[in-house]
Specification:
The chain has 251 residues and is of the alpha/beta class. The chain is built from eight helices and seven strands, in the order βαβαβαβαβαβαααβ. The chain has a seven-stranded parallel β-sheet with strand order 3-2-1-4-5-6-7, sandwiched between helices. Bound molecules: nicotinamide-adenine-dinucleotide (NAD). It comes from Pseudahrensia aquimaris. This is SDR family NAD(P)-dependent oxidoreductase. Keywords: Oxidoreductase.
Protein backbone atom coordinates (compact mmCIF):
# COMPACT_ATOMS: atom_id res chain seq x y z
CA UNK A 1 0.00 0.00 0.00
CA UNK A 2 1.40 3.37 -0.96
CA UNK A 3 -1.18 5.69 0.62
CA UNK A 4 -0.36 6.88 4.10
CA UNK A 5 -2.44 5.59 6.99
CA UNK A 6 -3.59 7.59 10.02
CA UNK A 7 -5.25 6.16 13.11
CA UNK A 8 -7.56 8.53 14.99
CA UNK A 9 -9.01 7.58 18.36
CA UNK A 10 -12.38 9.04 19.36
CA UNK A 11 -13.13 9.39 15.64
CA UNK A 12 -16.92 9.01 15.75
CA UNK A 13 -17.64 12.69 16.39
CA UNK A 14 -16.25 16.08 17.35
CA UNK A 15 -12.58 16.87 16.83
CA UNK A 16 -11.74 13.25 15.94
CA UNK A 17 -14.29 13.11 13.13
CA UNK A 18 -13.15 16.47 11.71
CA UNK A 19 -9.55 15.20 11.81
CA UNK A 20 -10.57 11.97 10.06
CA UNK A 21 -12.27 13.91 7.25
CA UNK A 22 -9.27 16.18 6.77
CA UNK A 23 -6.88 13.21 6.61
CA UNK A 24 -9.13 11.65 3.93
CA UNK A 25 -9.08 14.94 1.96
CA UNK A 26 -5.26 14.85 2.16
CA UNK A 27 -5.22 11.35 0.64
CA UNK A 28 -4.70 9.26 3.79
CA UNK A 29 -6.51 6.05 4.64
CA UNK A 30 -7.88 6.31 8.19
CA UNK A 31 -8.45 3.84 11.00
CA UNK A 32 -11.40 5.29 12.93
CA UNK A 33 -11.44 4.02 16.52
CA UNK A 34 -14.28 4.67 18.94
CA UNK A 35 -16.05 2.80 21.72
CA UNK A 36 -19.44 4.24 20.75
CA UNK A 37 -20.44 1.69 18.11
CA UNK A 38 -23.61 3.43 16.90
CA UNK A 39 -21.96 6.83 16.41
CA UNK A 40 -18.96 5.18 14.77
CA UNK A 41 -21.15 3.26 12.32
CA UNK A 42 -23.04 6.45 11.41
CA UNK A 43 -19.87 8.55 11.10
CA UNK A 44 -17.92 6.04 9.00
CA UNK A 45 -20.78 5.29 6.61
CA UNK A 46 -19.77 6.54 3.20
CA UNK A 47 -16.09 6.98 4.08
CA UNK A 48 -14.93 4.09 1.92
CA UNK A 49 -11.24 4.38 2.62
CA UNK A 50 -11.74 4.20 6.40
CA UNK A 51 -11.49 1.18 8.67
CA UNK A 52 -13.91 1.67 11.60
CA UNK A 53 -12.94 -0.19 14.78
CA UNK A 54 -15.39 -0.26 17.67
CA UNK A 55 -12.88 -0.53 20.52
CA UNK A 56 -12.10 0.99 23.91
CA UNK A 57 -8.62 2.50 24.03
CA UNK A 58 -8.46 2.27 27.83
CA UNK A 59 -8.40 -1.56 27.66
CA UNK A 60 -4.91 -2.98 26.91
CA UNK A 61 -6.16 -6.06 25.04
CA UNK A 62 -8.43 -3.92 22.84
CA UNK A 63 -5.52 -1.62 22.02
CA UNK A 64 -3.47 -4.65 20.95
CA UNK A 65 -6.38 -5.74 18.75
CA UNK A 66 -6.55 -2.19 17.30
CA UNK A 67 -2.93 -2.38 16.13
CA UNK A 68 -3.20 -5.99 14.91
CA UNK A 69 -6.23 -5.12 12.77
CA UNK A 70 -4.53 -1.97 11.44
CA UNK A 71 -1.50 -4.03 10.47
CA UNK A 72 -3.65 -6.77 8.88
CA UNK A 73 -5.84 -4.32 6.91
CA UNK A 74 -3.39 -1.64 5.82
CA UNK A 75 0.05 -3.07 6.62
CA UNK A 76 1.35 0.29 7.79
CA UNK A 77 0.76 3.25 10.11
CA UNK A 78 2.08 6.76 9.49
CA UNK A 79 0.21 8.87 12.02
CA UNK A 80 -1.37 8.20 15.40
CA UNK A 81 -3.75 10.82 16.78
CA UNK A 82 -4.55 10.18 20.44
CA UNK A 83 -7.75 12.18 20.57
CA UNK A 84 -10.28 10.07 22.53
CA UNK A 85 -11.07 11.81 25.79
CA UNK A 86 -13.66 12.14 28.50
CA UNK A 87 -14.53 15.20 30.58
CA UNK A 88 -15.94 15.03 34.08
CA UNK A 89 -15.85 18.22 36.10
CA UNK A 90 -16.28 18.12 39.87
CA UNK A 91 -14.75 19.35 43.13
CA UNK A 92 -12.00 17.26 44.73
CA UNK A 93 -14.31 16.09 47.51
CA UNK A 94 -16.85 14.94 44.95
CA UNK A 95 -14.28 13.14 42.81
CA UNK A 96 -14.21 9.66 44.25
CA UNK A 97 -11.54 7.23 43.09
CA UNK A 98 -13.85 5.66 40.51
CA UNK A 99 -14.49 9.05 38.84
CA UNK A 100 -10.75 9.84 38.96
CA UNK A 101 -9.88 6.49 37.37
CA UNK A 102 -12.55 6.85 34.68
CA UNK A 103 -10.91 10.08 33.52
CA UNK A 104 -7.36 8.74 33.81
CA UNK A 105 -8.16 5.44 32.06
CA UNK A 106 -9.08 7.13 28.81
CA UNK A 107 -7.26 10.47 28.92
CA UNK A 108 -3.89 9.22 30.16
CA UNK A 109 -3.69 5.40 30.20
CA UNK A 110 -5.23 5.28 26.71
CA UNK A 111 -2.62 7.65 25.27
CA UNK A 112 0.17 5.58 26.81
CA UNK A 113 -1.29 2.26 25.65
CA UNK A 114 -1.95 3.39 22.06
CA UNK A 115 1.46 5.07 21.70
CA UNK A 116 3.26 2.02 23.05
CA UNK A 117 1.34 -0.44 20.88
CA UNK A 118 1.78 1.69 17.73
CA UNK A 119 5.52 2.20 18.19
CA UNK A 120 6.69 -0.82 16.11
CA UNK A 121 4.60 0.29 13.09
CA UNK A 122 5.59 3.93 13.53
CA UNK A 123 9.28 2.92 13.60
CA UNK A 124 8.84 1.35 10.17
CA UNK A 125 7.21 4.47 8.70
CA UNK A 126 9.17 7.07 10.74
CA UNK A 127 5.72 8.26 11.62
CA UNK A 128 4.17 10.87 13.86
CA UNK A 129 2.14 10.95 17.07
CA UNK A 130 -0.16 13.84 17.97
CA UNK A 131 -1.70 13.84 21.43
CA UNK A 132 -4.73 15.96 22.23
CA UNK A 133 -4.39 17.68 25.59
CA UNK A 134 -6.34 20.82 26.56
CA UNK A 135 -5.86 24.33 27.88
CA UNK A 136 -7.04 22.68 31.13
CA UNK A 137 -3.68 20.89 31.18
CA UNK A 138 -1.86 24.22 31.06
CA UNK A 139 -3.91 26.32 33.46
CA UNK A 140 -5.37 24.95 36.64
CA UNK A 141 -9.00 25.63 37.31
CA UNK A 142 -11.71 24.72 39.77
CA UNK A 143 -13.60 21.46 39.13
CA UNK A 144 -10.86 19.94 36.96
CA UNK A 145 -8.76 18.04 39.46
CA UNK A 146 -8.97 14.87 37.36
CA UNK A 147 -9.45 16.27 33.84
CA UNK A 148 -6.81 19.00 34.16
CA UNK A 149 -4.30 16.66 35.76
CA UNK A 150 -4.84 14.03 33.06
CA UNK A 151 -4.22 16.61 30.35
CA UNK A 152 -1.10 18.03 32.05
CA UNK A 153 0.23 14.48 32.15
CA UNK A 154 -0.47 14.05 28.43
CA UNK A 155 1.64 17.15 27.72
CA UNK A 156 4.58 15.63 29.60
CA UNK A 157 4.01 12.18 28.11
CA UNK A 158 4.33 13.81 24.68
CA UNK A 159 7.76 15.14 25.63
CA UNK A 160 8.78 11.71 26.92
CA UNK A 161 7.72 10.14 23.63
CA UNK A 162 9.56 12.77 21.60
CA UNK A 163 12.74 12.30 23.63
CA UNK A 164 12.72 8.52 23.43
CA UNK A 165 11.40 7.88 19.94
CA UNK A 166 13.26 10.63 18.09
CA UNK A 167 16.16 8.32 17.30
CA UNK A 168 13.76 6.14 15.30
CA UNK A 169 12.53 9.13 13.31
CA UNK A 170 9.22 9.22 15.15
CA UNK A 171 7.95 12.70 16.00
CA UNK A 172 5.56 13.36 18.90
CA UNK A 173 3.67 16.62 19.39
CA UNK A 174 0.73 17.85 21.38
CA UNK A 175 -2.24 20.06 20.59
CA UNK A 176 -4.04 21.87 23.41
CA UNK A 177 -7.45 22.93 22.16
CA UNK A 178 -9.41 25.77 23.68
CA UNK A 179 -13.18 25.36 23.93
CA UNK A 180 -14.98 23.81 20.95
CA UNK A 181 -18.75 23.19 20.90
CA UNK A 182 -18.62 19.40 20.83
CA UNK A 183 -20.79 16.96 22.77
CA UNK A 184 -17.99 16.62 25.35
CA UNK A 185 -17.77 20.37 25.96
CA UNK A 186 -21.48 21.06 25.88
CA UNK A 187 -22.05 18.44 28.59
CA UNK A 188 -19.91 20.45 31.02
CA UNK A 189 -20.13 24.08 29.77
CA UNK A 190 -23.05 26.07 31.17
CA UNK A 191 -24.07 29.40 29.57
CA UNK A 192 -22.09 31.17 32.34
CA UNK A 193 -18.98 29.22 31.40
CA UNK A 194 -19.50 29.97 27.69
CA UNK A 195 -19.79 33.72 28.43
CA UNK A 196 -16.70 33.63 30.67
CA UNK A 197 -14.66 31.88 27.95
CA UNK A 198 -15.70 34.51 25.41
CA UNK A 199 -14.43 37.16 27.82
CA UNK A 200 -11.13 35.40 28.51
CA UNK A 201 -10.25 34.53 24.91
CA UNK A 202 -8.64 37.32 22.83
CA UNK A 203 -10.47 36.13 19.70
CA UNK A 204 -13.72 36.28 21.73
CA UNK A 205 -15.16 32.99 20.52
CA UNK A 206 -15.05 29.21 20.67
CA UNK A 207 -12.96 27.35 18.11
CA UNK A 208 -14.31 24.94 15.53
CA UNK A 209 -13.48 21.25 15.11
CA UNK A 210 -11.85 22.05 11.76
CA UNK A 211 -9.56 24.67 13.29
CA UNK A 212 -8.19 22.02 15.65
CA UNK A 213 -7.99 19.37 12.91
CA UNK A 214 -5.93 21.67 10.66
CA UNK A 215 -3.14 21.85 13.23
CA UNK A 216 -3.26 18.12 14.02
CA UNK A 217 -2.94 17.14 10.36
CA UNK A 218 -0.17 19.71 9.81
CA UNK A 219 1.82 18.22 12.71
CA UNK A 220 1.49 14.75 11.14
CA UNK A 221 2.60 15.99 7.71
CA UNK A 222 6.09 16.29 6.19
CA UNK A 223 5.69 20.08 6.51
CA UNK A 224 6.34 19.55 10.24
CA UNK A 225 9.29 17.20 9.64
CA UNK A 226 11.61 19.04 12.09
CA UNK A 227 8.95 19.67 14.74
CA UNK A 228 8.87 17.32 17.70
CA UNK A 229 8.26 17.55 21.43
CA UNK A 230 6.15 20.66 20.94
CA UNK A 231 2.88 21.85 22.36
CA UNK A 232 0.63 24.05 20.24
CA UNK A 233 -2.34 25.71 21.88
CA UNK A 234 -5.17 26.17 19.40
CA UNK A 235 -7.21 28.35 21.67
CA UNK A 236 -7.88 31.81 20.24
CA UNK A 237 -5.05 33.22 22.39
CA UNK A 238 -6.35 32.03 25.77
CA UNK A 239 -3.04 30.56 26.97
CA UNK A 240 -0.93 33.52 25.84
CA UNK A 241 -2.82 36.14 27.85
CA UNK A 242 -1.47 36.87 31.28
CA UNK A 243 -3.62 39.57 32.77
CA UNK A 244 -6.31 39.42 30.13
CA UNK A 245 -8.78 41.46 32.13
CA UNK A 246 -11.82 42.33 30.02
CA UNK A 247 -11.91 45.75 31.74
CA UNK A 248 -8.48 46.61 30.29
CA UNK A 249 -9.68 46.15 26.70
CA UNK A 250 -10.75 49.00 24.45
CA UNK A 251 -13.90 47.27 23.12
N1 LIG B 1 -14.35 20.21 22.95
C1 LIG B 1 -13.54 20.92 23.71
O1 LIG B 1 -13.89 22.03 24.12
C2 LIG B 1 -12.16 20.40 24.04
C3 LIG B 1 -11.26 21.30 24.61
C4 LIG B 1 -9.99 20.84 24.95
C5 LIG B 1 -9.65 19.53 24.70
N2 LIG B 1 -10.55 18.67 24.13
C6 LIG B 1 -10.13 17.29 23.91
O2 LIG B 1 -10.32 16.95 22.54
C7 LIG B 1 -10.55 15.56 22.45
C8 LIG B 1 -11.80 15.29 21.63
O3 LIG B 1 -12.89 15.87 22.32
P1 LIG B 1 -14.29 16.23 21.65
O4 LIG B 1 -14.67 17.52 22.23
O5 LIG B 1 -14.24 16.06 20.18
O6 LIG B 1 -15.19 15.11 22.37
P2 LIG B 1 -16.43 14.21 21.90
O7 LIG B 1 -17.04 13.72 23.15
O8 LIG B 1 -17.27 14.92 20.92
O9 LIG B 1 -15.69 13.01 21.15
C9 LIG B 1 -14.86 12.12 21.87
C10 LIG B 1 -15.01 10.74 21.26
O10 LIG B 1 -14.12 9.86 21.96
C11 LIG B 1 -14.78 8.64 22.19
N3 LIG B 1 -14.16 7.98 23.34
C12 LIG B 1 -14.12 8.41 24.63
N4 LIG B 1 -13.47 7.54 25.40
C13 LIG B 1 -13.08 6.51 24.59
C14 LIG B 1 -12.38 5.31 24.81
N5 LIG B 1 -11.93 4.96 26.02
N6 LIG B 1 -12.15 4.48 23.75
C15 LIG B 1 -12.59 4.82 22.51
N7 LIG B 1 -13.28 5.94 22.25
C16 LIG B 1 -13.52 6.79 23.27
C17 LIG B 1 -16.24 9.02 22.44
O11 LIG B 1 -17.11 7.92 22.25
C18 LIG B 1 -16.43 10.14 21.43
O12 LIG B 1 -16.91 9.67 20.18
C19 LIG B 1 -10.63 15.02 23.89
O13 LIG B 1 -9.38 14.45 24.25
C20 LIG B 1 -10.91 16.27 24.70
O14 LIG B 1 -10.48 16.15 26.03
C21 LIG B 1 -11.80 19.10 23.79
Amino acid sequence: MTEKVALVTGAARGIGLATTKLFIEEGYRVVMVDRDGDELAAASKGINSALPLNLDISAPEQVDEMIERTQAHFGRLDALVNNAGVADFGPIEGTDFKRWRTVMETNLDGVFLCSQAATPLLKQSKGAIVNIASISGLRASTLRVAYGTSKAAVIHLTEQLAAELGEYGIRANCVAPGPVRTKLAMAVHTQDIIDAYHDAIPLNRYGSEDEIANVIVFLCSPKASYVTGQLISVDGGFESTGIGLPSLRSG
